[in-house]
Amino acid sequence: MINHYKLLINGQWQEGADQAFEVKNPSTLETIATCANATPEQLDLAVEAATEAFKHWRNVSHAEKQQILHRIADDVTEARDEIATLIVAEQGKPLFLARGEVEGGVAWLRYAADQEIPVELVEETAEKRIELHRKPLGVVASITPWNWPFMIAVWHIAPALRAGNTVISKPSSLTPLSTIKLVEIINRHVPQGVINIVTGERGIGSAITQHSAIQKIVFTGSTPTGQSVMRNAADTLKRLTLELGGNDAAIVLPGTDINKTAAGVFAAAFLNMGQTCAALKRLYVHESEYEALSAALVRICQEQVVGDGFEESTTFGPVQNQAQLDLIIDLVEDARHHGANIMCGGERLNREGYFFPPTIITDVSNHSRVVKEEQFGPVLPIIKYTDLEDAIAMANDCEVGLGGSVWGPDSNAATVVASRLESGVAWVNTHAQIQPNTPFGGCKMSGFGVEFGLEGLLEFTSHQLLYLSK
Ligand code: NAD
């Protein structure tokens, strides 16, 4: 049976006024659900509801908001199997990974619940007292991508609510189902209108970015869409957090332990079939380790069991959608055409579904498209270097700067190199590690603003300086 999902506006589940859209399973290409298409008028209603709800929600005590977020985390925990199943069905990732995504969501919900919003005493003298306060912004819109649909929705919504804002959620039309479930759970615990969801594939995201009564947009997605969000938000000077594309480089220094590094590099490069913003996407390896590390990575790729995420034996799922698969094929073919060596994978599997096996490319130019463009899929180009300065220059010769890493036997030496990377996060002997209490965000065209930690929470507030003359 195909389920149908509606919009949540002011605590009521409503039909879209337009024809529903279909959600497909990327492993089978079967339609698994239909979803309501929100109209601009319905977006207006959702924003009106959120504006009204803000008047009360902003004044709910911190202690009560904290309890509510913990209750939401409890309910997510109880529904974890159902949510993981929705994630596999809509996104494609193997079940173990989907379970991890739900667990991550719970961890971030509980972290947001426990956060405190500080009042900072700036100065106190006999004449004056100066305090820095933080206030909620109002209506926050969350626009999310299709790669980690549930966890990223939590990353946006939990701190927004914790800080006292009300929320309009707009998930990717490719993967709306687990977010709708999250919103349904949140709505059990908050007053009507505090959380709303408008799904759609007919420009509803763009309408959100132009809406005059939305105060902030927290957006995770591609750099071109982020640029459009920023352009549209300019007229009403909306606050923005833009978590955009990345093309993370990793540098492997001479003398690195090959087996340990191969396992770590594989995990970071092919996490979620490479469809992770801060996945390792370009690998620069010193010539002394180049052959051995490439061979070790090929071995790990060949051990993967590519298949439907619901099958117990599957370790590697499909690419999420046709456009992404087409891009991967295009980039690999371009590299092949220019003489690169496709060491393993490199061809779409001859079966139903968007399956593309993990692919290692060597003898590839640093100027090739597969290195220069964010491939956001199961492909890793490996570039040989002789001089470390060249490797650092190649790593930094990039428009985006989300994460980056350096791997080597001497962690102090590797740290010195890591600090020279132009990226929002620099890892040493690991990559793509994130946690709720450490600010995460990019530089250059990977966007601005951070998520997580106190810095992330404060992005959902505006400051008010209170100056008291005694
Ligand atoms: P996308 O930009 O195509 O879509 C993201 C969201 O924006 C979707 O909900 C989409 O419907 C919506 N959207 C599309 N056009 C819009 C418009 N004109 N105005 C407003 N919203 C619009 O991105 P995607 O393909 O879903 O995700 C992949 C990209 O996301 C990759 O580039 C990846 O690196 C990036 N990403 C970044 C992070 C991060 O934290 N930096 C995390 C995950 C993904």
Strand order of the largest sheet: 15-16-17-14-13-19-20
CATH topology of the largest domain: Aldehyde Dehydrogenase, Chain A, domain 1
Form type: globular
The kinds of small molecule bound in this structure are: nicotinamide-adenine-dinucleotide
* Proportion in β-strands: 15-25%
Rg from alpha-carbon coordinates: 23 Å
Structural class: alpha/beta
- The average pLDDT is 97
Put simply, the count of helices is 15
Main beta sheet: 7 strands, mixed
Poorly predicted sequence stretches spanning 5 or more consecutive residues: none
CATH class of the largest domain: Alpha Beta
CATH superfamily of the largest domain: Aldehyde Dehydrogenase, Chain A, domain 1
The span between the termini is 69 Å
Q: Your description of this structure?
A:
- This protein has 470 residues and is an alpha/beta fold.
- It has 2 domains: 3-244 and 446-469, Aldehyde Dehydrogenase, Chain A, domain 1 (3-Layer(aba) Sandwich); 248-435, Aldehyde Dehydrogenase, Chain A, domain 2 (3-Layer(aba) Sandwich), CATH 3.40.309.
- It is built from 15 helices and 23 strands.
- Strand 13, helix 9 (258-269) and strand 14 form a beta-alpha-beta unit.
- The radius of gyration is 23 Å and the shape is globular.
- Nicotinamide-adenine-dinucleotide (NAD) is lined by residues 143-147, 170, 172-173, 205-206, 209, 220-222, 225, 228-229, 243-246, 277, 374, 376, 402, 442, 446.
- The site of nicotinamide-adenine-dinucleotide (NAD) has 27 residues, from helix 7 and helix 8.
